[in-house]
Design a protein that fits this description.
Elements lengths: L3 E5 L5 H10 L6 E5 L5 E2 L5 E2 L6 E7 L10 H15 L9 E3 L3 E4 L2 E12 L5 E10 L25 H22 L2 H9 L7 E6 L2 E10 L5 E5 L2 E5 L3 E2 L1
Parallel strand pairs: 1-2
Antiparallel strand pairs: 2-5, 3-4, 5-9, 6-7, 7-8, 8-9, 10-11, 10-14, 11-12, 12-13
Length: about 240
Amino acid sequence: MKFRLECHKVLESTSSLVKQRAEAGEAEGLAIQALRQSAGRGRQGRGWDSPAGNLYLSVLLRPEVPLRDAPQWSFVAAVALAETLNAFLPEAATPKLKWPNDLLLQGAKAAGILVETGIAPSHALDWICVGIGVNIMSKPSLPDRHTACLAEYLAAPPAPEALTQSLLESLAHWHGIMLQQGFAPIREAWLLHAPAMGAAISLKRDGGLLEGAFAGLSPEGGLLLAKDNQVQLILAGEIM
């Protein structure tokens, strides 16, 4: 698949526009980039500071897969993003992926992915909007976590437009693998960028905090958490 890229100087949200176009019948492969967003969004409806100099990109996919498999496309985007940034960054700043949708540099959040879906009248999956934000030149201040940007590691960080082109090429590659071979190779590639097995993690879920050790991903993409000599399958939550 080859993406059709539109670049705008400013939008409220790239994902909002992609979703509008999806509902209007736009074909798969639309990619919308904004140099700045005035109303960017993160997970759980959080606002996302979106000044000029960073990457804000959303793409439209229409895979013929069961609705239950839609969250797996977040992992497709994460692998594509990690491989793209790995080509730009020094070895000391190797990107790491945090379940389910963040990219970290030396433990600090440098990028995030937001997957949203549209449901057809038949209750089947209609479309997927994958929104990706990367801190290139600046980083937001968040109360509950450390953040990072590429400019902290690169004397000459890539322009958002250049990074987008590389990212779309990688995303098209992994999109093809997902359709042809399923989730297994995506899972394997994601684990190459994941925390070390046994690494301590804390998970915020249902208003509480669950602590344990990273034990990998399930075949469907759920988090495996080792605790008290047992492995729990986690399908929702946020690693702190």
